[in-house]
Structures are given as C-alpha cells and as structure tokens.
Amino acid sequence: MFQKVIHTRWIGIACLLVLLTLISSASVKAATLYGETTGNQLARFNSKAPSSAPTFSGLADSVAEPTRQLNALDFDGDSRADYVNYRIFISTVFISRSSANNTTFLGLQFGIGGSDIFQPGDYDGDSRADIAVFRPSSGTWFILQSSNNMFRAVQFGASTDQPVAQDYDGDRRTDLAVVRRSEGAMIWYVLRSSNNSFFGLNFGFSSDRVAPGDYDGDGKTDIAVKRGAPGEPATFFIQQSTGGFRSVQFGMGEDLVVPGDYDGDDKTDVAVVRPGSQLVWNIIRSSDNSVSVVRFGSKGQFTVQADYNGDGRTDIATFEPGRGLYFILQSPNQTFIAQQFGTSEDYPVGNYNTY
User: Could you tell me which of 67, 129, 191 has the C-alpha nearest to residue 353?
Assistant: First the structure.
C-alpha cells in the first residue's frame, strides 16, 4: 500500500519574486571554446560491437573516487531535488525550496521562453544547482552561478546540437557538452571544467537516443546511447570511463531513456519508460542486476525522476501539466507523494534528464 501525502498549497502568497535583467556586459564572461577534434581523440563506433573497447583520450586522464552522483535539481544545497518549473510565456523559472519544506519559492526571469533549453547542473562546484540554459540559435550557454550570483555566457555548440551537460571528468562540476548528428553519425563534444580542455568523440548513430550516466560508478559520466527502431528490441551501448565498453539489450526502440541511480549504489542504472496510456518504468538495478517493473504515471505526464528525499536513490516521478501536480514514488519504501506546484503553462525542468 502506498502512503498518500498530499500538499495542496500553491505557494503563491509567501513567495519571493526576483527579476534579474542580465544585460550588463561587465558581468558576462564570454569565451569561444570550440576547436577541431584531432584523430587520436576519436573512436569510430559502428553498429557491431568492436572486438576491443574503443579508446580515446580525455575521460580516463584521472580516476575519481566513487561518490554520490550530482543532483542537478538541488538548488538550495540540502541534497534533495527541488520542484522546478519554467513558465515559458514569461520566461521565468520557479523553484520550490525543499529545505523550507516547499513553503517558499523563488521566481527568476531567465532565458528566452520557447527557444532556450534548460540544462541545470552544478557548474561552479558549490554543491548547489545553477540555473543554466543552452541557446541553439547562437550555440551559447547562459549560466547563473549560485556560489557568487555571477552570470556567465560561453559559446560552445551549434544550432542543431543537443545539449548533454554532465560531469564527464569527475571534478564534481557539470561540464558543458553537446551531441552533434552529422552524416549518420553522432559526435560528442565536451568542455572539461577541470582544465578547460576540449575533446570530441564519435560514438553512436544519428538515429540513436543519448543515454549519458555514470554506469561504472567512478564519479564520471559515461558516454552512452540507446539504439533500436520502434517495435524492435533496443540495445544500450556504453563507453565507460573506467570499466570499458559494454552493451546491454534492454527495452524497446520506442522507450524513453530515464537515467538514474534507483538503487543507491552510486552507479547509473539502465532504465527506460514505455509510453502509452500508462507509463511503465523498466529498470535494471546495477547492484544485483535484477529487473524492476513499475507502472507509474499516465499519458500526457512528463517524467521527472530525481532524488527528492535525499537518500541517495533516484525516485520515480512524473509531472502533470494540466493540474500542475508532481507525483513521486519515494524510495526506499515506495511512499507516494502528490505535490501541487505550477500551472498548466509550466514545463518541468526535471524533464531535462529524459531522452
């Protein structure tokens, strides 16, 4: 039986609305950091698994100690994901503070609604998520750092690129990263925050879904893709930064990729959601390789999986835009929570990690 806890306050009275107009060029640190990929940085990835693991320079320069994965939705630093919505028509992000038991929220005007792509993460390494967007029209990242409230803009990417910001070098800071699909291939470009160096890797086909995550538990995000046509079995291809290349057949081609550490072992689990009238979550627990199947959510809801209770495990969660409701199945005892936050015009930023 699920324990149902419903918080129905749309926290509209006790709110703090902060409108920032980020127009001062003095506060902008812009850098053009795009370069040409050298031959020894690329590993060609074909439809057949290679006889030996593809190698490339960059991701294995140093080995990070295993550590809890970054929570890109923890804006107040309490190790719990916050409810975060973007109201597109007024270009404003709303953050409900979990540290205040969701009784107060912050409103911040940021970005261009309907154009920018939200990419939350800890870009400055202060253990708090930063508000960040990628603007395809100019290939520019705009980041508001929580450590000093400084705004910075970095040009990295092109108009057709897909942003995939994660911590690829294991320094506990989110790296700028994009995927470029060109001539049937998928090329990953990463700007490492540890030393400001750049690398590119040819990994996957242009028709693949991206599936980044720390699958080997070394504290670094691994480059990964999911391949499969609708109606056919799918396969995950993963280039682990420490554990080497692996492939896992799991799910169907039409399934959504929902990375997360659902069992709390500091490793990303291979996980998918099968769309339909009811959402079906299929997860391979990396701790024991068992498969979990959970029916949670319905058609029209967004997947927003994250660690909402701070226990180090990703919680299955959805957002219903029509009523502005979050539905969460909290680990480890599957406590059910419904939290009202937002309106029918809001987009849940937590959906950034679904592919």
Answer: 129
